[in-house]
Amino acid sequence: MLPYMAYRYVKNKREKNQREMDSDLDSMVRSIVPDKTVICVPNVAAKLGEDSKEYIPGTLSIVEKSSGVFIEWKPSEDAETSWVMTSDDGNTEMVHARSPEEKQKCGARVAFSMDVNDLSSFRNDEPKRDSGSGGFPSIRLICRDGSSQVPLFFKNTTTAEFLDRLQGYITLRRSHRDSHLVIVVDQKSEALAKSVSMLDENGDILSRFMQNPYMTAMTGFSKITSFVQDQVIPSVLNDTDAVTQEEKIRLMRELRLAEEQMRVHSDAAGEFEVVTQLELPPRPEIYRELPVSKDLWNSFKLSNGSYDPMKLHHLKMNVFRGGLNAELRKEAWKCLLGYRQWHESDTDFQTRRAELAKQYENMKKQWMSVTEDQEKRFTKFVKRKSLVEKDVARTDRTVPFFQGDDNVNLVHLHNVLMTYVMYNFDLGYVQGMSDFASPLLFVMKDEVDTFWCFVGLMELTQKNFETDQAFIKLQMNQLRDLVMIINPKLANYLESEKSDDMYFCFRWVLVWFKREFSFLDTCKLWEVLWSGQPCPRFLLLICVAILDSQTNIIIDNQFGLTEILKHINDLSMHLKVDEILTAAEAIFHQLSASQNKLPAHICQYLNIGESAVSSSNNSPSKSDPDRVDL
To answer: What does UniProt give as the signal peptide span (predicted)?
Structure first.
């Protein structure tokens, strides 16, 4: 056993097991035993809002309950005044208490009770009184799902005693990059990460691996995949703090190294290519076209409503080069996502749709009929149901279609995702899937159509969510290879900063840029990708185009991983989709013109060379013959 694990991991594991035994043996007694308050810190004020200067006094507690250990903040019941920060030096002014009704409403809005196991990190500021900077010690708790509690200010004491008690239940580590950020360490992933650095020194692990490499590898990989799904994906999708994301990425990188150590023997005999810097031709000037209109779309149909198979490539190229008019999306997306087959007549599709509607309702009834008693013995279902409910509650809530707490569209979104859990229970639900479902519902306005379009979309993207994360890793490696060819200067810089694993692009690839573009721009980007033109990995060329445009900013400012992450995150909602698509297509044609010089694996990514469709080499212009005009 590793020394680290023997000291910290095993100690906490035993304590956890003991608590679970106590819970099982004494559940009847524990149910009537009152909650135990471990610490109660008075006069801890909650800030009413980001821009507010008003603070409501209250108490911060750690409470042991039969269901777990909780951090709780409640407003003081006897508080007659609130206080206002009048300057940055910490001076305060007491103000009249609000009316009882206002006070109750404000207190209820900011009060919280959270399980310590839901805590991901927190910011801890301790102003030095003798420095003249003033202010009060404060903490802001950040949850694993990316949400955060209101800032809490300790008016009469420091945070030290509270944090000391908190460490009795969880392991904390201060960030290397940001001294004010404290990370909650997941013990399993921390133990595995620590073991990575000891692999060469620990003969026991290596000997066990040699004796039974399959079981050792599977044990390690299961921890890696659990860590990626439970921590990395939520952090990348929900946490806007680049430092927190960096901590997760560093751990993921260490776990990847462990995986590579395990696989080194099987890969030793593999073939590889030596890639030297290539001199590429200039990029051609590319033009985006107007969106495909309904009239143009209908011109590809036969009399029975099916699509002319001889013109399908032309149709898809039109979608690739211009996207679709909004009025056409409901019809066209069904075809692009495989819900409606291109060869189906209108009558055949309506007949099949009626059958698919029955299948949807049957699957929907399955999860809706699960009782609370059944849920007690159906832990996987309960976990997935909880994930769906959390994601639906925060997906695209700034979009008018999903605004409001009583919005029926949120119910439809929930129904679609829960039904998919029953449709594909092996995959179930992973955070981020709601990002793919919400635009479909926005366009379809119907649960059945949305669901079957979602099934088609998940056929394209579900590998991103599979537990081994092999496809995400493959795409990161392919992206690195493309950057090495297109922009060796940036590739060399990223390697010097130990960022060439491209994990800072994880979110881009995971949810197909859903968080980077506006809702409507995302619709345009996705339908371009669904066209399948001009190559299977056009998503990666979009990544390359964005990185290529940011090269000077990254290098001139000497960004490290944290700064790169922050910069990439800050690009969200500032990218112009047509410019990016134009640049990505220009890169494709630049590489296509150099196919005889490119390594074989690059040609394979882009579907150029011997395996390419000859028409994919046509450079588009305003007079392109593939463009069909009426």
So the answer is: none
